[in-house]
Design a protein that fits this description.
alpha+beta, Glutaredoxin, 2 domains, 5-stranded mixed sheet, 11 helices, elongated
C-alpha cells in the first residue's frame, strides 16, 4: 500500500506540475519539450505499473472499500429516513414484544424456500429474546401465487386479528403445494377468520395498496429478494441461521 500511495503521489505531482506550466498558445506542456519526452514519460509510468502489478490490485481493493463505505453510509441514511415506515406503521403484523427495543423487520414471500426455512428460526429467536419486536412486510415477488398469499394474509390481518394472522401464516409457510383461492379459504377458516368473502377482500384496493407500499419501500431500500431482514440499522439479505441471527441481536443489543 505504501508503494502504491507513493507512486500515485509522484504521478499526481508530476501531472500537477505539468498542468501548472501549460501554455495555451501551442497546446503543448512546458514539462515536455518534445513529443518524444512526453511519450517516454507515459512509457515509464506503464513500465512501473507492469513491474509492480500489485499496485493495480491494491488500487482496485481501495476503490471497492471506498465504494462499500459510501454505500453503507447511504444505506444507513435511507434507514433513518424510512424508520417510521419500517418500524411504526399501523398495518404490518407485529410479533414478539410490541415495545421491544430490538426491532426486526422481515420482507417475506410465502413461496420463497429460504423464507420457509427461516420461519421457525425467527419464532425460536423471538421466544428466546424477550426484547425483540418482529415486523412482517409482505413482499410477493415470485409470481401470482405469492401475490395471492400476501393478499390473503393482509386481508386476515386487516379484518381479523394478530392471532388469526399468526395461525394462517404458520399454515401457509409450511405448505408446499400450489396456492389457490380454495386453499387460502381453507387455511383462513382453520385459523378462525370471520371474513365472509375472502376472495373479494383480497382484491380490494385497501389490501393491494398495502402491498404497493411494501414494494415501494423495498425499492427505496434496494431490497430485491427474500428473505431480507432489517435489524435496527442493518440490512441483511438472505437466509440467516439461528446462530447468525442471535449474534446480530446481541451485537445490536450492545450498541443500544
Amino acid at each position: 500500500m505504501k508503494l502504491f500511495v507513493a507512486t500515485i503521489t509522484l504521478i499526481s505531482t508530476l501531472f500537477a506540475w505539468q498542468a501548472s506550466f501549460s501554455k495555451d498558445v501551442s497546446g503543448q506542456n512546458s514539462l515536455f519539450e518534445t513529443k518524444e519526452q512526453k511519450e517516454f514519460f507515459h512509457m515509464e509510468i506503464q513500465r512501473f505499473i507492469l513491474e509492480n502489478p500489485d499496485i493495480i490490485i491494491e488500487a482496485i481493493q481501495l476503490y471497492q472499500k471506498n465504494k462499500e463505505k459510501e454505500a453503507a453510509t447511504k444505506e444507513l441514511q435511507i434507514l433513518k429516513n424510512k424508520s417510521a415506515e419500517l418500524f411504526q406503521d399501523d398495518y404490518s403484523f407485529v410479533g414478539g414484544n410490541n415495545d421491544g427495543k430490538i426491532r426486526i423487520v422481515e420482507f417475506i414471500d410465502y413461496k420463497c424456500g429460504y423464507c420457509k426455512k427461516n420461519h421457525k428460526i425467527v419464532w425460536s429467536i423471538i421466544k428466546d429474546n424477550s426484547d425483540v419486536k418482529y415486523i412482517v412486510k409482505e413482499f410477493p415477488i415470485l409470481g401470482s401465487q405469492s401475490i395471492m398469499a400476501a393478499q390473503a394474509l393482509l386481508s386476515v390481518l386487516l379484518y381479523d386479528s394478530n392471532n388469526t394472522y399468526k395461525s394462517f401464516s404458520d399454515q401457509l409457510i409450511a405448505y408446499s403445494g400450489s396456492i389457490n383461492t380454495k386453499t387460502l379459504k381453507t387455511f383462513a377458516e382453520n385459523s378462525g377468520s370471520k371474513i365472509l368473502d375472502l376472495e373479494t377482500t383480497m382484491k380490494s384496493e385497501k389490501v393491494n395498496l398495502l402491498i404497493a407500499k411494501n414494494a415501494s419501500l423495498a425499492k427505496e431500500l434496494r431490497i430485491e429478494g427474500t428473505p431480507t431482514f432489517i435489524i435496527e440499522d442493518q440490512i441483511i439479505r438472505g437466509f440467516l441461521s439461528k446462530n447468525q441471527m442471535q449474534e446480530l441481536i446481541e451485537f445490536t443489543r450492545k450498541k443500544l
